[in-house]
Amino acid sequence: MTDANYKTLKFKPGAAVDPARAMRRGAWAVAEYRLFTMSKWMGAIISFGLGNPIIYLVSIGLGIGALVDANTGGQGIDGVSYIQFVAPALLATAAINALQDEVTFPTLQGFVWDKMFYAMNNTPINSRQIANGVMITAAIRGVFTVIIYELVLLVFEAIPLSSALPLFVSSMVAALAFGAAMLAVTVRIENDDALFAIIGRFVIAPMFLFSGTFYPLDQMPIYLQWIGWISPMWHSTQLGRFLSYGMPLEIWQVLMHAGFLVAVYAVGMLMAYPKFESRLQR
Amino acid sequence: MTSDMIVAKNLTKTYADFVAVDGIDFTVKQGESFGLLGPNGAGKSTTMKMISSVSKRSSGELTILGKDPDKFGPEIRAHLGVVPQKDMLDRELKSWENLYTYGRYFGLSRKFLKPKVEELLAFAQLEDKRNEKVEDLSGGMQRRLAIARGLVNEPEMLLLDEPTTGLDPQARHILWDRLFRLKEQGVTLVITTHYMDEAEQLCDRLIVMDKGKIMAEGSPADLIKKYSSKEVVEVRFGADRNAQFADALKKLGDRIEVLPDRILVYTAHGEATLEKLVAEGMNPITSLVRRSSLEDVFLRLTGRTLVD
């Protein structure tokens, strides 16, 4: 190779970067990078975001919903249509799935596949900012997913407009809690083994089925109800039902549901941070 | 602020079951090209991670760009360029996107980065690979991209961990040329390598490391002068006959090293020694006269070769 077309690189070493600025916006820089990467498969994100609610709406709204509503003499559950009853759970599930995707795979990529987190950590960005950046991106994906879902529900008149904001809040709180817990789990995975498949089958699926999603949790035998009690899904769904159509709940119950989700989020992040730090030290 | 870029005193890193870096002292001055030479497992990469201000030292003192990395890691890293041993590029992103996104980690503006990215692609001779994904680039191109990425923040000091390991000879020479040009511009370089020719080409001064300790320090020429003779005669008599000539060869040179496949005779005048050897009736299967290198220094210091 000749150097006839070699271009000199000229710079004054150390003049370009303002460390304070870099340190201030570290988490956002990580999020920006993740969004940049995500934009490569925007088509898949949009079609999944749209396809998922439409499938559920048709099968549950038109199928099970019609059956339930007919058998309750048009009363539905809690005095609302069946689709209104399950909407908080469907939205929470969609949001949880979105955050789960954006928390698990990027973290494995960052630590195991192409080790990008180590490259990031060679810049002013610290371990906590990397963890936060991953969560910010996941939250943005969750917001995007929930908004699409709600638009579909609104277009099909499955929920009233007044439910949109309450359901947005309840589903995002659940997704953030679950996302933080998954972040704490994923950062402890050394290799991409079958763990995600196991989590999908033995955590997410039971959580979806046993969290009072399709019928009130107290219809379950008591020895199965505990699955709902420890599941962010149930707490979020109860909150969503309370906020969106005023399902009767005591104030302490509302606080307990919200408090549980906030606590899971906090514990998840607090367990993720030190492991991010120690793993990047290697 | 001094012109010392790195000051390490009794620098130590221990892991649960072993000591990776065992109380080393060295200083790197501004504009210098400094090397850490040693075999795999000598503690070079561990030292490099501590210099990069990502891995905390276990004990001793370390000052990078005048600051303590335990307290000012991010501030120091803002002015370092790091080229890791494994490139750690995003394989899904295009060449220019890798440079751009990395620049954003330093808080650099889009306005600054737009021309900077093109400039770096030109420096790495990757202009025509600008829009190719990293996974479609050759190993040499990926390494050049990683070096370009390490320069995006216009660093005071560039740290390169085994920059040419796994590259073919041509790709290595292109890289050396690029690094040499950076050095000419006054960028401080710190390079770990287990290739003695790389250390001789690029380093003004180096430390030879083995088992976490510094065995010797100096310029390549000084080290060779101090620990080796001017020239070396390499002779082979066949694996089972090498040992029987050892005693006779000892008398001909200053010193000899008996390796499994050959004997090295250290001497000031290689050709003369070889003639004498043949005159004495020793007829090696092959013979070679060469100048002493850092490889010989390492062999002298540790009794082992650098690349096993």
Topology (SSEs and partners):
The complex is a heterodimer of chains A (282) and B (308).
Chain A: H1 19-24, H2 26-38, H3 42-71, H4 82-113, H5 116-121, H6 127-155, H7 164-186, H8 195-209, H9 222-229, H10 232-245, H11 251-281
Helix pairs in contact in A: 2-6, 3-4, 3-6, 4-6, 4-7, 4-10, 6-7, 6-11, 7-10, 7-11, 10-11
Chain B: E1 4-14, E2 19-29, E3 33-37, H1 44-51, E4 59-64, H2 69-77, E5 80-83, H3 95-105, H4 110-123, H5 139-150, E6 157-161, H6 169-184, E7 188-193, H7 196-202, E8 205-210, E9 213-218, H8 220-227, E10 231-236, H9 242-250, E11 255-258, E12 263-267, H10 270-279, E13 286-291, H11 294-302
Helix pairs in contact in B: 3-4, 8-11
Spell out the key features of this protein.
heterodimer, A: 282 residues, mainly alpha, elongated, B: 308 residues, 13 strands
> How widely separated are the two ends of chain A?
37 Å
Structural Rg of chain B: 22 Å
Give the largest chain-chain interface (CB within 8 Å): A-B, 45 and 49 residues
Structural class by SSE content of chain B: alpha/beta
Q: How much helicity do the residues of chain B have?
A: 25-40%
Helix count of chain A equals: 11
**Low-pLDDT stretches of chain A:** none
Strand order of the largest sheet of chain B: 5-6-7-3-8-9
- The helix-strand sequence of chain A is HHHHHHHHHHH
Rounded average pLDDT of chain A: 85
**Biggest sheet overview of chain A:** none
Structural class of chain A: mainly alpha
**What is the count of β-strands of chain B?**
13
Strand content of chain A: under 5%
Task: Classify the helix fraction of chain A into a percent range.
Answer: over 70%
Over all CA atoms, what is the radius of gyration of chain A?
22 Å
Major sheet of chain B? 6 strands, mixed
Indicate the overall shape of chain B.
Answer: globular
Oligomeric grouping of the chains: heterodimer
